[in-house]
Amino acid sequence: MQPLQPVSGSDLQRFLSAPEELLQESVALQLAIASFHQTPRSLLEILVNSADAQVAEAASLHVSFAGEITDGWQQVVDEILQQRQLGQNDRLAVELLKIGTVPPCFFSEWVPAEPLIQGLRNPQMPLRYRLQLLQRLSQEPSLEPRLQVAESPETPSTVLEQLAGDLELPVRLAVKFNPSCPPPLIELVEGQYAVASDWNTDGEQLAMLGQSPWAWIRLTQILQLVWKLFAIPTHRLAHLLKLF
Q1: pTM to 2 decimal places
Q2: I need a labelling partner for 94 at 20 to 30 A (CA). Which of 136, 168, 192, 235 fits?
Q3: 59 vs 54: CA distance, rounded Å
């Protein structure tokens, strides 16, 4: 990106009486004026209609046009970053994450979990970004990232809810003993498992458990259905259930 063309308050004077003439100027000058802190609203109202998207955006975000953002400014910044076509350089983003703050939206889907886990330990990483990393890591197919999320006291209850019925026992146990985990959640998951693993549970109840949001419950329900359909000996079914 080229540096902004320098402008001063005196440069604005010739446009105050005829603001529309600004749109006839070069993009470089339009962008400089749209970014200049002293630019009045009357000129910004013209520049938001510039044919150049960068100029229009700069003018629309100017404090004299949009007003000062006092609440939710961090979310506004994140949304702007996500909408910009910045390109991606995963290697650079990972290196920067070791020493500073990098918004999670800068990482493509190809970035492995390990550097993101390290990012959680970066003391400069704002909480809102750590929460985004926790959400992303909770979706990883391998065990270690999900286990890290399940153990973190910062993990939101909505993410813990997703992991409470994880197929991996270490993840389920980590959620259960996470101080941020609401006890009713564990009671619900374990209650569903008790019904799904009960050999005497009828078909209707098992069918309902097939709609459970937790993979652990759905797998247990499938094993029960297989047992009922193919008359697998109960001792063999019990052995299968213990594996999960």
Answers
A1: 0.63
A2: 168
A3: 9
Contacts with 52 (C-beta within 8 Å, 6 or more apart), sequence order: 27, 30, 31
**Which sequence spans correspond to the domains of the chain?**
9-68, 147-181, 182-244
To 5 degrees, how large is the angle CA 23–CA 25–CA 31?
A: 80
pLDDT digit string (tens) for 146-177?
999 999 999 999 999 999 999 999 999 999 99
Token look-up 């213990």 returns 242
8 A C-beta contact, residue 53 and residue 36? no
Rounded to whole angstroms, the Cα distance separating 57 from 231 reads: 67
Helix H or strand E encompassing 97: helix 90-97
What does 59-95 look like in DSSP terms, one character per residue?
HHHSHHHH----SSHHHHHHHHHHHS-----HHHHHH
Banded model confidence at residue 191, pLDDT cuts 50, 70, 90: very high
Does the pLDDT value for residue 86 go beyond 50?
no
CA distance 205 to 208: 5
Q: CA 130, CA 153: separation in Å to the nearest integer? A: 12
